[in-house]
UniProtKB/TrEMBL annotation:
Keywords: Signal. This is Sugar ABC transporter substrate-binding protein. It comes from Streptomyces thermocarboxydovorans. Transmembrane segments: none annotated. Residues 1-26 form the signal peptide. It comes from the Bacteria. It holds the Pfam family SBP_bac_1.
């Protein structure tokens, strides 16, 4: 059971509180979305426009619809836009969309507000879906504080360190199997400039609670810091939070990519793919692109767990998952779609039709037993699975937390708080202010949020 706090606050959700987690990927025009929940033989699905979802859209009519007779009307939008649209439709229980892509950040919050259908009854009846095959951290992350399941993962990820094996070897360097952040900083300094135009490391600096704050918060955790202590005292001005943030800012300023303050996931992926950086700490999902057919660095990348300092692990936990709106008039058909899209056979379908590197992995144990997938993802499959298994959303640091989350704090206010703090951090990365100045302002922002919870 996922617990939020021993001193759980009154519901403070506002539609505007639910924002973006990671940067939008390539644009994709929306499709479908007729304006009302579909009839008995159709459903409306609102989803993010990442590559795995685009593959799903292409495969649905010829497979799911052909098998079930259920037409799926898709609305596909960039991440910022889709989150806004989902929050509006689900908060108002308008029922325009039956199913939407939600993350493990939103699902417990939406469930607490009564915006989602519990999936337990469907899982119990649909034995072929095999809930036990879903990786336990994913099931736990999508279970609300009432103990019920409200989402099924489409794909899952953690974070790890990616590095150029050939570059380190050429420089006579060796990557530790479980590096510390200080070891990573030393390596970054040594490989900076190892090839023309190559920087030592790429780290997100782009403003956004799911951009720079995602990797930085994992660094804060393992350095011994936290956003809030167990009594909801804001701790952004603590020694540990300052040390972690100063380390991160110094590392990216001294050995990171050019224009770091405006670089997010997409920019770092491009830098790593194009050979402009020797290391990259980010989402495990990035490995599929690095190892894809035609990638200039395919076969040259090594993968090790997220760097640590005071904790045993520090990788984050994230999933794009399916949730059914409580107001849906077609929950049975909505479940049939989810069961297909997150099922074992779908992953095999993607492998055969779109290539095994495109399989939406990170959610099922059985995926890692598929010979074709293991061959294609040999370089990173086990490291990814181990990172997901080691993720500890309830206990990611060295002290008790009042709310779950590794790269975020599982409260609705974090979208706004994290975004504002990220702007201060990005400003420090750009050299416009000191880390102390950035965190002094950030502490006041966090204190304002904490007051609501301390009084509950």
């Amino acid at each position: 059971m996922r617990t939020q706090s021993r001193r759980s606050p009154r519901t403070l959700i506002a539609v505007a509180a639910i924002g973006t987690l990671i940067t939008p990927l390539a644009a994709c025009s929306g499709a479908g979305g007729s304006g009302s929940s579909g009839g008995g033989d159709s459903i409306n699905v609102l989803m993010v426009n990442n590559p795995q979802m685009v593959d799903l859209q292409k495969l649905t009519a010829a497979n799911f619809t052909k098998e079930t007779g259920i037409k799926v009307n898709f609305t596909v939008l960039p991440e910022n836009d889709v989150r806004d649209k989902i929050s509006q439709d689900f908060a108002n229980q308008a029922g325009q969309y039956d199913v939407a892509t939600l993350s493990n950040y939103e699902i417990p919050i939406y469930a607490k507000n009564g915006w989602l259908h519990s999936l337990d009854e469907y899982v119990e009846k649909d034995t072929a879906f095999d809930q036990d095959d879903i990786l336990p951290p994913m099931t736990k992350a999508l279970t609300a504080e009432d103990g019920k399941l409200y989402g099924e993962p489409f794909y899952g990820e953690s974070s790890f360190l990616m590095y150029r094996k050939d570059v380190l070897e050429k420089e006579g360097l060796k990557m530790p199997p479980k590096p510390t952040w200080k070891q990573v900083a030393e390596l970054a300094a040594k490989v900076d400039g190892a090839e023309p135009g190559m920087k030592g490391i790429c780290l997100r600096g782009l403003p956004g609670w799911g951009e720079v704050m995602a990797p930085l918060t994992t660094v804060v955790n393992t350095f011994g810091g936290t956003w809030f202590d167990k009594d909801w005292k804001a701790r952004l001005d603590s020694k540990e939070f300052k040390e972690a943030t100063q380390f991160y800012v110094d590392l990216v300023r001294e050995h990171g990519e050019a224009g770091a303050a405006q670089s997010g996931y997409a920019e770092c992926l491009n830098n790593m793919t194009q050979g402009k950086t020797a290391m990259w700490y980010d989402a495990t999902a990035g490995a599929g692109s690095l190892e894809a057919k035609g990638s200039p660095v395919k076969g040259k990348i090594g993968y090790v767990p997220a760097p640590v300092e005071k904790t045993d692990s520090s990788g984050w936990l994230y999933t794009w998952a399916w949730g059914i709106q409580k107001a849906s008039k077609n929950p049975e058909n909505a479940w049939k779609f989810i069961s297909w899209a997150s099922g074992k056979e779908y992953e095999k379908l993607v492998g055969e039709k779109a290539g095994w590197s495109n399989v939406p992995a990170g959610k099922r144990t059985s995926t890692y037993d598929i010979p074709e997938y293991r061959k294609e993802a040999a370089a990173f499959a086990d490291v990814t699975r181990d990172a997901i298994a080691a993720a500890r959303p309830e206990d990611p640091g060295v002290q008790p937390r009042p709310a779950p989350g590794i790269q975020f704090v599982g409260i609705p206010e974090f979208t706004d708080l994290g975004t504002k703090v990220s702007q201060e951090i990005s400003s420090a990365i750009a050299g416009r202010q000191s880390v102390d100045s950035a965190l002094k302002k950030s502490q006041k922002l966090a204190e304002a949020v904490a007051e609501k919870y301390e009084a509950s």
